[in-house]
Amino acid sequence: MNGRVWLVIGSTGRVGREVVRELSRRGEKVRVLVRSPERAAAFPPEVERVRGDLADVSTIV
């Protein structure tokens, strides 16, 4: 691992979910931006979940 962190937006969708799984499988550090962290419960525990909504700028700081 090289110290970078991948931020996946849309991680609970069909394609995003596979991107998260593959990055995790490769040992990459992954952070997901989700409206509802409960929807990201199926991801491996090492995936960092961050609550935010691109439609609500106040949730992204």
What does this protein structure show overall?
With 61 residues, this protein is an alpha/beta fold. It has 1 helix and 3 strands, in the order E-H-E-E. It has one helix at residues 14-25; strands at 5-9, 29-34, 48-51. It has a 3-stranded parallel β-sheet with strand order 1-2-3, covered by helices on one side.
Secondary structure elements and pairings:
Blueprint (H helix, E strand, L loop, with lengths): L4 E5 L4 H12 L3 E6 L13 E4 L10
For this entry, give a set of tags:
alpha/beta, 61 residues, three-stranded parallel beta sheet
- The strand order across the widest sheet is 1-2-3
Overall tally of structural domains: 1
Summarize the amount of helix as a percent range: 10-25%
Oligomeric composition of the shown chains? single chain
Low-pLDDT regions: none
Reading the helices and strands in chain order gives EHEE
Please give a quick description of this structure.
This protein has 61 residues and is an alpha/beta fold.
